[in-house]
Amino acid sequence: MSAVNGIAQRLPYQTNSTLRQQINAGDVQYEDLHLSHMSQMVRSGFFQKLDMAIVEVCAVTEEGYLIPTTSLGNTTAFVDCADRIIVEVNTTQPKALKGFHDVYDVQPVPHRDVIPIVHPDDRVGVPYIVCDPKKIVAIVPCDIPDKPAKLAPPDAEFEAMSAHLIRFLHEEVAAGRLPKHLLPLQSGVGSVANAVIQGLCRSDFEHLTVYTEVIQEGIFDLFDAGKLDFASGTSMTLSEKGLQRFYDRIDEYRKKIIFRPLEISNSPGVIRRLGVIAMNTALEFDIYGNVNSTHVLGTKIMNGIGGSGDFARNAYLTFFFTKSIAKNGDISSIVPMCSHIDHTEHDVDVFVTEQGLADVRGLCPKERALKIINQCAHPDYRPMLSDYFQRAMGTTKHANTPHILSEALSWHQRFAETKTMRV
Amino acid sequence: MSAVNGIAQRLPYQTNSTLRQQINAGDVQYEDLHLSHMSQMVRSGFFQKLDMAIVEVCAVTEEGYLIPTTSLGNTTAFVDCADRIIVEVNTTQPKALKGFHDVYDVQPVPHRDVIPIVHPDDRVGVPYIVCDPKKIVAIVPCDIPDKPAKLAPPDAEFEAMSAHLIRFLHEEVAAGRLPKHLLPLQSGVGSVANAVIQGLCRSDFEHLTVYTEVIQEGIFDLFDAGKLDFASGTSMTLSEKGLQRFYDRIDEYRKKIIFRPLEISNSPGVIRRLGVIAMNTALEFDIYGNVNSTHVLGTKIMNGIGGSGDFARNAYLTFFFTKSIAKNGDISSIVPMCSHIDHTEHDVDVFVTEQGLADVRGLCPKERALKIINQCAHPDYRPMLSDYFQRAMGTTKHANTPHILSEALSWHQRFAETKTMRV
């Protein structure tokens, strides 16, 4: 669609490189939404009337119910709200996906009831989408398989981050602040988050559960290592090899995996209730604990916030991970001030890079700065960050959040001026 | 306490001017938390063991139950977690407060059940705090009354904001995006938020409900105008006159008001479920829709984020209000880039100043900028903001979020250099 300039407006998330270029050239309007908001905004009519929805399924039952594929997402809301529906039966997706889904419709306000999930493996709905047959204007076959996910190969930095996480979780259990089998884990999309959760295979933790948005490769590694009891998500992104592993033992995995509508997988209430441990990836974070997860140099969007805000904001314990440097060391991922903020200083408990882990719970901004600089920043950048912080303390006479406004964004500025941005 | 330098660390919120100076001089460590996080963090031991809690009540029953005053807040969590408790019986608070409270304890993870509130007036707990009598080391009397709230008198700008809001709400009802009696209203602390909700007295709306954190003067005006059926909050801040009105008809108000623990009043799940309309105040917001509600010139803290994030993030419809200029016009409250961000571009639906209202639902950052500049900024600052935006478009070749990093904070910078900050 994007390759033929067929998209005028896109929301709520994207990961395609062609589309990214079009958005950053002003050719496509992109609204980057918290994913848990999307269905509600569609249902409430905030985006005007929905004319047409194209819905991917693996099968249509004799009763006319739709069986989704490995991506449930906002399909239910689109089916409920669109005037006309084109059903695309993807023949590359096995019919054995029947039984993986748990579709519970969140009622419209002001008549919403509780979403009664109290454990990640609670089934509260039906394993199909009910669709008014009158709305279906076409059922078409499709034989295009899912694009396999490409993940960066494991490296020493990923392993270091994972080791920091495991050590910290053990300390929390020992201190009585986390139960022995931890709490339901959420893990963001991409190589860093995947490597971190995959790393738990090398830990002593057992009987883990996952309550997440996207089920990635690492979660299957946890299953196969006998560490994981159950995983709940809204969709799945796997490599070709990972997909084969899934298909080979699909009947076994059906007992251990639920796909839920996005408004349930990312529900603020369910996340808070379950006490999820949220683990997401930052592009950069600043010395006071603000996180940029979307905009390179504050201007060009990378992918989008996705569900990271839904989880980070409502979790029991919120982690952000990033390598301490990027572009072969030309950029520090820890900066004086983020050039764009998606998760605020109020939202994050623990920061992790390959250098170390900064637990900032209960700390004021100045204490956070010292900890983040000393424990997360790359040694090459620590002196510059400390220098900025100390001079900002002097300039503002120890204000709550010391900054030198004329310098706060200078690290990005310098890079924007001297390097060509390739995003 | 702050006047005698008796506070080393403060959290999760503050409004005292002495304490504010101490925080901004680096003498007090302040952690500015989302209020819904506080009880959970106390209960989970994130702040270490709680030695002692001083708890204000209006009465202790024969059974040893504690009847809180007009501020329930996090008292339940403190009582549950502290080793020793000093109970302070405030004799200026009437015993007739008995029956206003609804104490429902959120269980610790991993055994949390649903909080079964589906209407603002649902009572789900008990009207007192259960406290282990063995923990109580002293019961002391106290005759210091609540400090009356000081609110700015109504003015033309407040009235204009309120009029914009009422017109918009009518349009939403007409378009079928809001029910006739709206949805439960939340309104932040302070003069602006109070004036806005008070303004609804002059609207045609009836049978309104409130699901908020702090019950202010304007909510009683709504009751007395016959517009409001019910209000749920965690505490109350009133003027001397307002307090007298409350006391005079306390038996009547008891049927219409519930005080809940903060973890319930600000519960992300309950807020999302009820579909709250969140109305909070910004210090400044930027052309792309990020909000600063805590830090003057990015460095000195004003009060804190309080519950604004709990509501803004999880509401059905999220508003931020501010006057378009401050300091007699020396400062524009709409800026190229916020100097501190508490609510991100992903969190807000509608911006309101006395100039007008910008509904940014479904808009990409560049569309948002045009709307916010043209409809919310003061006419004196519109040309400068448009000029910045247009040049940023050129510099970044229409990137998703155009910025000129060397200028983005220059408005604050100029002010920080030329004026003495009095915060």
TrEMBL record, chains A, B:
EC nos: 2.8.3.-
Residues in coiled coil: none
Keywords: Transferase
Pfam hit, one: AcetylCoA_hydro
InterPro entries for the chain: AcetylCoA_hyd_C (IPR026888), AcetylCoA_hyd_C_sf (IPR038460), ActCoA_hydro (IPR046433), ActCoA_hydro_N (IPR003702), NagB/RpiA_transferase-like (IPR037171), Succinate_CoA_transferase (IPR017821)
Residue ranges constituting the Acetyl-CoA hydrolase/transferase C-terminal domain according to the UniProt record: 242-388
Chain ranges of the Acetyl-CoA hydrolase/transferase N-terminal domain: 7-141
GO MF entries: transferase activity
Top EC class of this enzyme: transferase
PANTHER family in UniProt: ACETYL-COA HYDROLASE (PTHR43609:SF1)
NCBIfam families in the cross-refs: YgfH_subfam
UniProt name for this protein: Succinate CoA transferase
